[in-house]
Design goal:
Length: about 500
Amino acid sequence: MSEIKSLKSGKSSMPDPNSIVPVILCGGAGTRLWPVSRKSYPKQFSKLIGDKSLFQSAASICSGPEFAAPMVVTGDPFRFLVVEQLAAIETLPTKILVEPELRNTAASVLAAALSLLEWDPDCLMLVMPSDHVIAEPGRFQNAVIAATPTARDGRLVTFGIYPTRPETGYGYLELAKGAKADAETPQPLARFVEKPDLAAAKEMLESGRFLWNAGIFMFKPSALVEAFEEYAPETLRCVREAVQAAASDLSFTRLEAEPWARLENTSIDYAIMEKAKNLSVMPYDGSWSDLGSWEAVYNEVGKDTSGNALSEHATAIDCRDTLLRSEVPGMELVGIGLEDMIAIAMPDAVLVAKKSDSQRVKEVVERLQESGAKQATMFAADHRPWGHFESIALGNRFQVKRIVVHPGAALSLQSHFHRSEHWIVVHGTARVTVDESVQLLSENQSIYIPLGSVHRLENPGKAPMVLIEVQTGSYLGEDDIIRYEDVYARK
């Protein structure tokens, strides 16, 4: 499997001199699109729009002779997902930086800048969130290229979206006097504006002097470091220590935890952009959305003649302007007589809400966390570097799982203190190690793993391998494991 080979080799794609390096920020744990987006599997890895995940679309949007392969900044729980999804679109990253913990965008962007300084201080870095939708890649590339001379002159360029409505969920950018919101080159920027109330948003829209803040930036690494030296020197000290002491781990670069822990939780806007004097804004009037709510998803997808946005396995009868999504193959979701509603069906949770209340989904997550419901943060499928599994039955002293292993992938060589396991292959071929025995199992064959036995599961085939695992024992938690060997170098 290509991602396993790249992990073992530890190789990355070095950027060409003077190229534009997309820096994709991929550490967020969004909850506004619950139940599809959760802390363990946030929205950027889901295929909400089209046949690519939002992260894959962000990684694909800037390609061509002007652009290098992307650099990704992510968290430890998502590092293998990043590799897997990049491999699926045949992209080898410039570098994958792993943050010890979330510290907001100021630290993430600066770590990327300091890493790029080591390679090419004259390159440009294009900082992009991993969970936005830009439907016209060519048009966006043209805007990026139009902004490059300004960025190469040492200015910090932010991208502003031409507003189409009085949106209260976005920050705004106020253009300087004489600047044009429809210009095709970067314009002088007066100031950043926090998310407004509706009355203020209407005034800003009518004035024609404001753009939405997209959270997309472009600058030379050296220009950003100079800004941190002036406005946030303590952040610069800590991030520089974390980068200088970073350790290689397979194909990842792990930033040092101790100096990272000393950092404030601060955005790049607050730390630098709201204070810097060398700012410009590149207006962009193409299609863009941060997919910050289910209503935003509804606005971006295709609809029938009654304004209904329907996924596969979803049916609308006498409905209008409604979003119905079944995220479960084999589960049919049917709406009757609904108007301006949202219904999202997952294997372990269902959301039903008015479209106008979709911004309140964060309240749902908070309420579920207070009650101790695992659905608040944990995805139904638990993704691992070798594939994923999901629990399909759980009772007193037993659990049944469905396990999917990628082609060429292997679980660690391991044993358990408290449980035994029975494996039944239902698709593909499994290579199974149990103590000193190694054997191949085909569909409809099974094997018993006694408690305490050292065992491993591998997929030697070219298609995903699926098996059913039946666990029995006094304790069935995922932490009941001793790893002896692991191709993914997990502890």
